[in-house]
TrEMBL record:
GO molecular function: carbonate dehydratase activity; zinc ion binding
Cofactor(s) this protein requires: Zn(2+)
Gene name as annotated: car15
Reactions listed under catalytic activity: hydrogencarbonate + H(+) = CO2 + H2O
InterPro entries: CA_dom (IPR001148), CA_dom_sf (IPR036398), Carbonic_anhydrase_a-class (IPR023561), Carbonic_anhydrase_a-class_CS (IPR018338)
SMART domains with a match to the protein in the record: Carb_anhydrase
Protein name per UniProt: Carbonic anhydrase
Keyword Zinc: yes
EC nos: 4.2.1.1
Amino acid sequence: QPHCDPYSWGDLFPSCHPLLEHHHSPINFDPHMPRSDSLGPLHLEGFDVTQPGHWTLTNDGHSVLLQVGSGMAVSGGGLLDEYHTIQLHFHWGGPATNGSEHTVDGRRYPMEMHIVSVKSVHPNMSAALEDPTGLAVLGFFIDVVYADNVHFGHISQMLSSVAYKGQTAKVKPFPLMGLLPRHNMSQYYRYYGSLTTPPCSQAVVWTLYQVPIYISWSQLAQFTSQIFATEEDAEQVTPLQNNFRHIHPTFGRSVTASRDAILPKGAAGRPIRAAVLLLPITFLGSFGL
């Protein structure tokens, strides 16, 4: 299936060709980036309550998406508008390879989760894709520990129902904040880029959180081994693996860290020892258990 190869997307979607000076995603984050004191925590409205109705989990052949309906919105943290949250989805590697889209200092995490929100003034997605800041995407690295993440279980327990392309399943809504590193939500990176799947529109304000979501090895394996890019009745089933796009140059784009981000010694901004006090919270607070 050639459309699964990110390098060949430009043949079908010319906008996916990463031409010089185009602002494509994902990128590598150099930890020595400058800090922006204007980047405080974002306001995530409705993320801490259980939304009514039901959500829909879908295997679209490229990823597993959770469509979340209305009720949640993202604003603040340097965003100039309110954005309505519509879905989240995942990128992963294979049984023995990491698969986050963004990298930090060249390091790739096992997985990455994207929460996608559309600027509230736009009537539909195609209008938003014409706007350089039409979408706000919150990115979360996913790392692995030995204990199951109970909140992540709301999604991972449903994966067998959407193992094959085109399958959908109803999911009982849960407070999305339980899934996120709630004690470290003021520590993030910010830049302007693109969708990482066709049509690769340069329409995204990216917020990548420093502290990952922690899941178990078995929860990771459900993605890397048990999801397929093909329909159930396909003559040959193809595992859905390595569904991340390659890293793109920043081409002089501004890439900044939030006010509270932890940066290495010698990086712009506050000295690192002022931030060391946050580290125990990082480890205790991110399991979401």
